[in-house]
Amino acid sequence: MTWALILGLLVLGLILILLEVIFVPGTTVVGILGLAFSAFGVYLAFVNYDSSTALWVLGLTAIANVGVIFYGFKSGVWKRFSLKDTISSRTYDDRLEGLQVGLRGKTISDIKPYGKAEFGDTIYEVKSNSGFIPTGQEVEIQQLEYNRIIIK
């Protein structure tokens, strides 16, 4: 009866670890339960049998558990959970369309160093590299980079 109980605990622990690695990765509850059952089976082997037999049980259990974990990683189950596609497309951003370096406009808020300025009939958020610019001042686009308008 004791061997059957020890063997049953070890097999149950091994199955739970296998389930953790292959079917429910990331939950860790199943894996911890598997390790606990395996550890309890090894404990019972040390309590009920001599140390050489118990050490054999410990060694074989460790080899089996590590083997199951390595099998889980080598089986490719983790590839199901990883992103394989890349997004290489871009969106067209027309917010700065119609603007060009040298275009003149007027500030409609204080620029310190960010604020709002009007170019044509459209209001844009702008940045000043020259520091504070008060409301109502005429400004000129110095640089357009990405979605930022830099004025002077």
UniProtKB/TrEMBL annotation:
**Membrane topology reported for the UniProt record:** Multi-pass membrane protein
Using the UniProt record, give the first listed, main subcellular location.
membrane
- Is Membrane there in the keyword field? yes
One Pfam family assigned to this protein is NfeD
- Transmembrane regions: 6-24, 29-47, 53-73
* Domain NfeD-like C-terminal residues, every copy: 101-152
Gene3D superfamilies, A to Z: Nucleic acid-binding proteins
Q: List the InterPro entries hit by this protein, alphabetically.
A: Membrane_assoc_protease, NA-bd_OB-fold, NfeD-like_C, NfeD_membrane
- Alphabetized UniProt keyword annotations: Membrane, Transmembrane, Transmembrane helix
Every NfeD integral membrane domain range? 6-72
Taxonomic superkingdom: Bacteria
- Cell location: Membrane
Q: Give Gene Ontology CC terms.
A: plasma membrane
Task: Tell me the protein's name.
Answer: Nodulation protein NfeD
Naturally occurring in which organism (per UniProt): Echinicola soli
UniProt lineage: Bacteria, Pseudomonadati, Bacteroidota, Cytophagia, Cytophagales
